[in-house]
Amino acid sequence: MTQADNPAQGAQMQFRGRMAYADYLQLEKVLDAQAPLSTAHDELLFIIQHQTSELWMKLAIHEVRSAILAIRQDQPQPAFKMLTRVARIFEQLNNAWDVLRTMTPSEYTEFRGALGESSGFQSYQYRAIEFLAGNRNTEMLKPHEHRPEVVAELEAILAEPSLYDEALLLLSRRGFDIGRDAHRTDWHETRPVNAQVQAAWRDIYKEPEKHWVLYELAEKLVDFEDYFRRWRFNHVTTVERIIGLKRGTGGTSGVSYLRKMLEVELFPELWKVRTEL
């Protein structure tokens, strides 16, 4: 056998006392974390789809936090890469719905009762992403009240400017008049739409070559929300395909609740300004 015939030639084959692939990734923990509560074939699919989504959301939170810090420090260019990565993470999350949609209503019914009142509605990482981006509906702290440490983490996010708040503060530092958004001190609530912010974005879009960094920041934010909206839409479609108009396991109205979420805008002035251009 030649070296070309043996793909292991030259590779490390002995790992006693060495760092191996499974050790580095702690695969025993990861692959041991699936514990179906029924004998239904499709429950493993359901668990893995949601667990992997949570892992991707963990990375999205890491990237959004880093983007916020970069913008706060007047270094928006590194944030562009981070926001691009967040958009691609949501593209990955969108693809995951395609796998889940291979499960039929009959197959889901076989194990739905085992879920109890657990629901994706209760994902605190999803809530963190919304809060970090700028959708700050404090009513959504309630599903997490049984976990004081989670509420504390979410409250810490609400105590500081969101990604969009930091983008607007950057506009102000670069000389744009954004009115009341330049002087906010309470970050807990979702901010109302501001005509002066919309006017600032309009000026940036009308002269992109003059305001290229802010123009690119605007497009990175829109790209992020574009993929985020697609994720929400695919969520609605998947739920309707599998359970129709039944109530969700977490007590929400199911599809009708999710449809309302499609109307929520993370960066409203960036979408509204397009009508004026």
Fold and architecture overview:
This protein has 277 residues and is mainly α. The chain has one domain (41-276): Methane Monooxygenase Hydroxylase, Chain G, domain 1 (Up-down Bundle). The chain has helices at 21-25, 27-31, 43-72, 76-100, 105-112, 124-133, 148-158, 163-173, 195-206, 212-243, 255-261, 268-272. Helix 3 runs antiparallel to helix 4 (76-100).
Descriptive keywords:
single chain; 277 residues; mainly alpha
Give me a quick take on this structure:
This protein has 277 residues and is an all-alpha fold. The chain has one domain (41-276): Methane Monooxygenase Hydroxylase, Chain G, domain 1, CATH 1.20.58.480.
Topology:
Blueprint: H1 21-25, H2 27-31, H3 43-72, H4 76-100, H5 105-112, H6 124-133, H7 148-158, H8 163-173, H9 195-206, H10 212-243, H11 255-261, H12 268-272
Unreliable residue runs: none
Would you tell me which CATH topology applies?
Methane Monooxygenase Hydroxylase, Chain G, domain 1
Radius of gyration: 22 Å
Query: Outline, from the CA principal axes?
Result: globular
**What is the residue-averaged pLDDT?**
90
**Proportion in β-strands:** under 5%
N-to-C SSE string, H for helix and E for strand: HHHHHHHHHHHH
Please give the share of residues in helix.
Answer: 55-70%
**Domain count:** 1
CATH architecture: Up-down Bundle
Task: Count the DSSP helices.
Answer: 12
* Amino- and carboxy-terminal Cα gap: 68 Å
Largest sheet properties:
none
Structural class: mainly alpha
CATH class bucket:
Mainly Alpha
